[in-house]
Amino acid sequence: MEPALSAFDPPLSVCLIGLLSENSRPGFGVRGSTLHQGFEAAKYLNRVEDTTSVVPNPWPESLKAQQQNNEIAGQINHETLGMKDSKTENESLASAEDKIAHVRLNGIKKWGSNEKAQKYASLVSAIENGSGYKISQQAVEQAIREDSKGIDPTHGAIFYNMRTVGQFKHGGRFQGQKIHTYSGPYISKGPYKYIMTYGP
Question: pTM of the full predicted structure?
């Protein structure tokens, strides 16, 4: 896991869809912020003093990106609904959710959008409420930040699924893809205790 983020790190509503011009730096659209706050966030993240080359996100694109991020968080929330950390897990459930978020980000890079990624690596429908939703939002935010730094704990995985204890012990590929990571076992009301990621 990365070190704790500072108090000035961008809030949950950070969107990484940027409008770039020649010699410009990526801009971060922050919902509910002023244009000046957007520039300040970009200056902080890029560690620069001159923000004249930072091009802020157009509001429609920023809102579209935020809606997509919320949808992904809702899907992760639904996928892990009822799961809890256990004493025997190899990593926290929050870390596993971060990996699911990376899988979807990788899918978006490969197929173009969350909607298109659904056709090849589907997740369940989004549940954008409940106690687990905020945790899933944080997982998506963390994954976006890590991805922007070139960090991917799944090593390029584009698929994920859950496995029972028996399936985990049996091992094997998923849809012809090799296993990249596994997380668990977790406490769950259902039969699935492990979260796996797969890729090319």
Answer: 0.70
